[in-house]
Fold this sequence. Notes:
Residues 4-120 form the Response regulatory domain. The protein is 39% helix and 19% strand.
Amino acid sequence: MNRxxxxxxxxxxxxxxxxxxxxxNGFDVIQARSGDExxxxxxxxxxxxxxxxxxxxxxxxxTVARELRKMPSLASIPIVxxxxxxxxxxxxxxxxxxxxxxIEKPIDPDTFMSQISQHL
Length: 120
């Protein structure tokens, strides 16, 4: 059985690229286009990893991470912020909200899978 990765991303181009790379590498991808949808799908699907954009409609990524960490069934699932928030303190904010990792956008297709594998 393939490992499942939930990608919570509202930008269609970013979602397409990440999904393409992950599926090419044998992962099953579940897509959510908003924070609240991501929380719902995470609870339903119990993915092996969650890739989380920070700038999301309805509920931002920091709030999503905090909500996911409140759910006992998801407590051990790694959450990696994949975001264009790259100012001083942004990585620390993501980690403080409950993320276990941080990848800056734009992603580098050549190194993306090695960054992902560090969290699986």
